[in-house]
């Protein structure tokens, strides 16, 4: 895993092999951040990274100047790894070991960008819960966006607040707005 841009550009991060993750590929991550970079000024953002895994997306946001990042994952190993790297690189990422759906149900904070990268094999009904909970709980700030990464075989276009999608290889980013 590599940080593409910002303060830690080019830095290779080696996550433990035993983590139950599928990190976002560099090509897809670069495409996503090109889209976001044209829309947002990163140092002003408040970001939530759901199903954070290795912290790949959180680290990229932090390297680009985002100081308010929350990463949520159920796996203790993932959370420990994100916390360790965040401390080593002085990133200040807040981590929560929690079930994402429980976190979304109880959260009171609002964010500019919410990124969710669940297992591609997750049931469609669970994919559908992510935007439902985000919008029911009014979790996006004005002009905020929810980005859900999923396999190209999954379609989220039928959901309320769906705006558009972008494909990068076998990965798709679906964008949701208020």
From TrEMBL:
**Keywords (A to Z) from UniProt:** Methyltransferase, Transferase
Q: Does the keyword Transferase apply?
A: yes
Listed under GO biological process in this entry are: methylation
Entry's Pfam families?
Cons_hypoth95
The protein's matches in CDD domains, at most eight in alphabetical order, are given as:
AdoMet_MTases
Q: Which SUPFAM superfamilies match?
A: S-adenosyl-L-methionine-dependent methyltransferases
* Molecular function GO labels: methyltransferase activity
Q: Does the keyword Cytoplasm apply?
A: no
Identification of the protein by name: RsmD family RNA methyltransferase
